[in-house]
Amino acid sequence: MGIPAGRGAGTMPASGAPAAREPDPGPHLAIDPARFDLVILDCDGVVVDSEMVSCTILRRQLARHGMEIDLDGIFQRFLGRGFKAVAEEYARRLGHPVPDALVADLKAELFAALARELRPMQGVIALIGRLPVPYCLTSASIPERIALSLRVTGLAATFGDRVYDSSMVARGKPAPDLFLHAAARMGAAPARTLVIEDTASGIEAARAAGMTAWAFVGGCHYAGRDGAAILAPSRPDAIFADMDSVRTAARPAPWR
C-alpha cells in the first residue's frame, strides 16, 4: 500500500531545522508523465528479491574469515552499498585487508545461490510493463552479478543496455553520482526523475541528486522488520510495500 509523503510536508521546529515528514496515508502512488520523464529502478531489493540471500551469505563468509557480525548489522552497514563498504569495515575491525579467499568464496557461494534461488520481486514485471515513461536499472553490484540476476530472472531483455552500475562513477551511494549519471544517459532532468529504492543509502542518494525518491519495503529482507520506520529517517517522498499499489497511465508510452 502506497504512503505518499510529498516534499515540503511537515513543519519547521523552533530550531529552524526541517521536521521529519509524516507519511500521507493516501491509498495510491501514481507515475504520471506530466510529472516524471524517467523511472530509475534499483536492482537488488526492488527488481529482484535478492537481499536476504546475499546478506545471509555475506554474514556467513565474513564469519568464516574472522569477522563476526549479525544479520541486523549487515543490513545497517552494507545494504544498498557496494563491496567497498564491506572491505573498509573488515579492514577497520581486523586491521588488515580483505583476503582474496573471502572474495572468491563469497562470489562462488553467492552466484550459485542466485542462479538457484533468485526471483523477480513480486509485482515488478507487471509494474514495468505498464510504466508510461522510460525506465532504467541502477545497481551498486558488480556488472557480472547484475548480468546474472537479470539473466536468471528473465529480465535481461527488459532493460537491455539501460543498466548503470557504480563502477561507472567516482562515488557510490549515498553520493548522488550514479543516479545523476543514469539520468544524464537517459536524457532526463533530475527534477523529473523518480527513483525507487529499498535502502537508506539509496534514498539519500536520490534526494541528493534532486530526484523524487520512493522507498520500497516489500522485499524479503523487510519481513519481520518495520521497513517504514527504518527508512523514514532518510525522508523518502513515499513508502510502499506493494508494487500493485502504484498507479500508472493506462497505455504504454510510444518510446517503447
Write up what this structure looks like:
The chain is an alpha/beta fold and 256 residues long. It folds into two domains: 28-50 and 120-248, Rossmann fold (3-Layer(aba) Sandwich), CATH 3.40.50; 51-117, DNA polymerase, domain 1 (Orthogonal Bundle), CATH 1.10.150. The protein contains ten helices and nine strands. It has a seven-stranded mixed β-sheet with strand order 1-8-7-6-3-4-5. Helix 9 links the parallel strand 6 and strand 7 (212-216). It is globular and about 50 Å long. Mean pLDDT is 87; it is low at 1-27.
Spatial sequence of strands, sheet with the most strands: 1-8-7-6-3-4-5
* Domain module tally: 2
* Mean pLDDT metric: 87
Low-confidence stretches: 1-27
CATH topology grouping of the largest domain:
Rossmann fold
What series of H and E elements makes up the topology?
EEEHHHHHEHHEHEHEHEE
List keywords for this structure.
256 residues; alpha/beta; Rossmann fold; DNA polymerase, domain 1; 7-stranded mixed sheet; two-stranded parallel ribbon; 38% helix; globular; disordered N terminus
List the helices and strands and how they pair.
Layout: E1 3-4, E2 29-31, E3 38-42, H1 51-64, H2 71-78, H3 83-94, H4 100-117, H5 124-129, E4 135-139, H6 143-152, H7 156-159, E5 163-165, H8 177-186, E6 193-197, H9 200-208, E7 212-216, H10 227-231, E8 238-240, E9 246-248
Parallel strand pairs: 2-9, 3-4, 3-6, 4-5, 6-7, 7-8
Antiparallel strand pairs: 1-8
